[in-house]
Automatic annotation (TrEMBL):
Main location: cytoplasm
Main function: An aminoacyl-tRNA editing enzyme that deacylates mischarged D-aminoacyl-tRNAs. Also deacylates mischarged glycyl-tRNA(Ala), protecting cells against glycine mischarging by AlaRS. Acts via tRNA-based rather than protein-based catalysis; rejects L-amino acids rather than detecting D-amino acids in the active site. By recycling D-aminoacyl-tRNA to D-amino acids and free tRNA molecules, this enzyme counteracts the toxicity associated with the formation of D-aminoacyl-tRNA entities in vivo and helps enforce protein L-homochirality.
Record-linked InterPro entries: Daa-tRNA_deacyls_DTD, DTD-like_sf
Lineage: Bacteria, Pseudomonadati, Myxococcota, Polyangia, Nannocystales
Family: Belongs to the DTD family.
GO molecular function: D-tyrosyl-tRNA(Tyr) deacylase activity; Gly-tRNA(Ala) deacylase activity; Ser(Gly)-tRNA(Ala) hydrolase activity; tRNA binding
Catalytic function, reaction form: glycyl-tRNA(Ala) + H2O = tRNA(Ala) + glycine + H(+); a D-aminoacyl-tRNA + H2O = a tRNA + a D-alpha-amino acid + H(+)
Enzyme Commission number: 3.1.1.96, 3.1.1.-
Motif (Gly-cisPro motif, important for rejection of L-amino acids): 136-137
SUPFAM superfamilies noted in UniProt: DTD-like
Subcellular localization(s) per the UniProt record: Cytoplasm
Comment on protein domains: A Gly-cisPro motif from one monomer fits into the active site of the other monomer to allow specific chiral rejection of L-amino acids.
Name recorded for this polypeptide: D-aminoacyl-tRNA deacylase
Pfam families linked: Tyr_Deacylase (PF02580)
Length: 150
């Protein structure tokens, strides 16, 4: 599983002109599910995201989402599984089938909710417009393999 995390002062996602999710201060998590990912990958990603110190406190990276009362906007992004090795067009062979990917993406969001983090989502499989205001900017990557952060 590949996840891009961006610290934001606000963010929103719309589908066909309709707002489907929005948050104030917190993080946008773009989640890419790859072939072979499982429940352990979703849980490890959510645990790391919930506890990651990426907000300022006494030090620049000192506080986590729960410390600052932040929210999460979790958006599925299969293009994170894209490979640019050959040619000029990305290959998405590593992307998981949608029927298997959607429950794992939703599990990341559910785990964050269970950790007490207000969490909104995009719409799986839809063409979305994502608006966000980067704070910092702070952008980090989470990669998992067999349920372990790598």
């Amino acid at each position: 599983m590949r996840t891009i995390i961006q610290r934001v002062s606000r963010a929103a996602v719309t589908v066909d002109g309709e707002l489907v999710g929005s948050i104030g201060a917190g993080v946008v998590a773009l989640v890419g599910v790859e072939r072979g990912d499982g429940l352990a990958d979703a849980q490890a990603t959510a645990r790391k995201l919930a506890s990651l110190r990426m907000f300022p406190g006494a030090k620049p990276m000192d506080r986590c989402l729960t410390d600052v009362g932040g929210a999460a906007l979790v958006i599925s992004q299969f293009t994170l599984a894209g490979s640019l090795r050959k040619g000029r067009r990305p290959s998405f062979d590593r992307a998981e089938d949608p029927q298997l990917a959607e429950p794992l993406y939703l599990e990341v969001a559910q785990q964050l909710r269970e950790a007490g983090i207000p969490t909104q989502t995009g719409q799986f499989g839809a063409h979305m417009q994502v608006e966000l205001v980067n704070d910092g900017p702070v952008t980090l990557l989470i990669f998992t393999d067999a349920g372990v952060i790598v």
